[in-house]
């Protein structure tokens, strides 16, 4: 959705794991870290805004 030198914004599909755990070994953050090894500070910020459609 958006990317610059400091921020990467994605709109992940519902049901896709954000990170591994609870039976999920590989989520979006692991995929991003693997594909961008030069990204030293790649971390998650969860939902910034929850629209009525997401309720």
Automatic annotation (TrEMBL):
Q: Tell me where on the tree of life, at the top rank, the source sits.
A: Bacteria
Task: State any single GO MF term.
Answer: catalytic activity, acting on RNA
Q: Which terms under GO biological process does the entry name?
A: pseudouridine synthesis; RNA processing
Q: Which InterPro entries does this entry report, sorted A to Z?
A: PsdUridine_synth_cat_dom_sf
Protein's UniProt name: Pseudouridine synthase domain protein
What is the protein's species of origin? Neisseria musculi
Provide the taxonomic classification: Bacteria, Pseudomonadati, Pseudomonadota, Betaproteobacteria, Neisseriales
């Amino acid at each position: 959705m958006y990317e610059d030198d400091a921020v990467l914004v994605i709109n992940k599909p519902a049901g896709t794991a954000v990170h591994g755990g609870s039976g999920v070994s590989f989520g979006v953050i692991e995929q991003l870290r693997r594909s961008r090894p030069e990204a030293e500070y790649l971390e998650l910020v969860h939902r910034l805004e929850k629209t009525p459609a997401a309720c």
